[in-house]
């Protein structure tokens, strides 16, 4: 397996591998860019089909974290870790402690938080062996950043609706949510409270039932959710759902969801634009979680955190305005803006030295 020639390799600063015979841990940590600060990002556990698939995921996800934190105005770099394994069968306290040792061995360049396949309790177990973890606050949600992620996606959606439809309400709008887990559930809750008609699909019957019973979400088939005739589609399950095969089936005018790396390839954003579908870059609208984690680490007041999350809507509105102005895909504009922030940060000390 080659790292430097891997398709998703983007001059990552650090890619570290761990194999621990005693516990069966096989994991990768990737730090994409630490210009803005230590690389904070989730630790994902997934039964990857191959080592290459795990490497591809961690490289793409860590790069996405760089852009996410930069656009959110956070003093954090981009990093991520993956554990190769099935979280329902392979996760043991010993394995998590070994992951803690692996994180500790990076000396603080990477700080782990929860992600798909890991929860706050798992990060707490890792913290027995490393101080480089985040998201363990004893708040209303026990440190879980998902409600903040959902709130940020909701605010992004509101900005997109204003931009595309010129209205400030979800009343009567139809939204389809793929995945009613930690984020999808809270997103559905906000939308239902605002009068939206919400359709939802989930491969997990218990999660689907909870959303239908508690929120009045209308259950639809997992095979149909992406192609529903709705105003907004919210992918909140997994990555690469918007691809060559699925995009022609999309009937929604707006796509805005929490899942990381929703686009399978960069060309997919241009494809959506050509079809007149407004795509809200995932790394911009799903930043509520990392903003939450940051404010947990710095012990900020809740009002400070909320005000920070509110900025997601403003930034998205700006990106969509610029994208319209220059007729280019929103994802490209958002990436350019993030790179611009990074460039400015890199030049800052030089500019200061020149001025003195
Ligand atoms: P989760 O695991 O709690 O929920 C995902 C849900 O999607 C589950 O209920 C699962 O059963 C369902 N699902 C999986 N495959 C599906 C399919 N093919 N069709 C329909 N449903 C399917 O995860 P989450 O924390 O809610 O995160 C959702 C997405 O948002 C993930 O991609 C995650 O990386 C991303 N994200 C989450 C956060 C956060 O704060 N939790 C932050 C940023 C990004």
UniProtKB/TrEMBL annotation:
List the Pfam families.
ELFV_dehydrog (PF00208), ELFV_dehydrog_N (PF02812)
Taxonomically, the superkingdom here is Bacteria
Write down the CDD domains for this protein, in alphabetical order.
Answer: NAD_bind_Leu_Phe_Val_DH (cd01075)
Membrane-spanning residues: none
Which GO BP terms sit in this record? amino acid metabolic process
Give the positions the UniProt entry annotates as the active site.
Answer: 80 (proton donor/acceptor)
Signal peptide residue numbers: none
GO MF terms here are: nucleotide binding; oxidoreductase activity, acting on the CH-NH2 group of donors, NAD or NADP as acceptor
| InterPro entries for this protein | Aminoacid_DH-like_N_sf, Glu/Leu/Phe/Val/Trp_DH, Glu/Leu/Phe/Val/Trp_DH_C, Glu/Leu/Phe/Val/Trp_DH_dimer, Glu/Phe/Leu/Val/Trp_DH_bac/arc, NAD(P)-bd_dom_sf
Provide the Glutamate/phenylalanine/leucine/valine/L-tryptophan dehydrogenase C-terminal domain boundaries. Answer: 143-347
What does the UniProt record say this protein does? Answer: Catalyzes the reversible oxidative deamination of glutamate to alpha-ketoglutarate and ammonia.
Per the record, the similarity remark reads: Belongs to the Glu/Leu/Phe/Val dehydrogenases family.
Q: What is this protein called?
A: Glu/Leu/Phe/Val dehydrogenase
Native species: Parahaliea mediterranea
